[in-house]
Amino acid sequence: MFIDITDFLLLELSYSTNFVSTRYSDNDQSSNSVIDLMFLKYSLEKLDNHTIHSEWRLLSDHTSFTITIPIKEQYTYNGKHFIAKSSAEEKLFIKDKIKNISTINTFNLSDIELFENVINLFAITIEKAWKKNSKIINISRHLKSWWDMNCSKDLEIYRSTRSLANWKQFKKTVKCTKYLFFD
Question: How far is CA 11 from its chain centroid?
């Protein structure tokens, strides 16, 4: 039964890189043993063994096992296209959208394929206008679209004085700015 389950899940017994006991007896009459096993995905060369750490067991009678999982280094792009509300870029984006959409022929939509072509063309023209008029910003944990110069000014005042009154003024400014932005 156990062998059937491991076969069904494509698991195989992992072999330890160091051969030590995995269970330590709490009395002198029993000997230490290897009763703990680890099963890993079948035929993964980089995950074909584990290490037993008998020094990590502390008060437990069982040891810890570890495996090293290789993680491929990968670049993550943290930027996004952005157009500020009520900006010149937003006006140009809207102007480009209207111009590009008005050139799409929507008169002969006699079947679903023609309709899908028009929808795809519509999406392409919007994306083109967006990329043309937007700027790329880097996303960070400090990026807040509601933040303005008043917030920066009051934060700088608080940082220079560290007074409770200036902290309260900064918090009040942030609250008002958020209210106006999200309203």
Answer: 29
Confidence of residue 141 (pLDDT cuts 50, 70, 90): low
At 1, is the secondary structure helix, strand, or coil? coil
**What whole-number distance in Å separates Cα of residue 62 and Cα of residue 32?**
10
Instruction: Give me Rg for the CA atoms of the chain.
Output: 32
Which residues are CB-contacts of 148 (< 8 A; sequence separation ≥ 6)? 177
Q: Is the pTM of this model over 0.85?
A: no
How far is Cα 106 from Cα 121, in angstroms, rounded to an integer?
11
3-state SS, residue 56: helix
Spatial separation of the C-alpha atoms in residues 114 and 99, rounded to whole Å: 21
